Amino acid sequence: MIFRSVPISSGHGPRNLDQLRHKIVPNTYRHNYRAVKRYRAKPYVRPRGWYSHRWIYGDILPSLFWTRKYWIDDFWRYGLSIPPHGHVWVRYDKDALLVEISTGVILQVIYDIYY
After folding, report:
1. What is the topology classification, in CATH, of domain 17-111?
2. Global pTM?
3. Residue 107 DSSP SS3
4. How far from each other are the two terminal CA atoms of the chain, in whole angstroms?
5. What radius of gyration do the chain's Cα atoms show?
């Protein structure tokens, strides 16, 4: 069973999230695409000394960019799919990146989801 996306709910995350994460096949995520819907968000503050970059899946995101303050914990509010076990959605400027927590490898990129 492959879970691709989670419908936007009334502000609550999916029940049994940990069980769902273990059922997801990470290989189904390997692509980049432009967001169908855009969301307003607080201004993005990049770590000091770093410049803008266009990330793609397979790149390794430096750990400064996927610290907890950049995590998208309420991913369902933005129509993002459930991250597989060991992965997290991260905000990078206007984009959402699905990153493997242990290595920083980007599994998927959704461009221009924020404005």
Report:
1. Nuclear Transport Factor 2; Chain: A, (3.10.450)
2. 0.76
3. strand
4. 33
5. 13
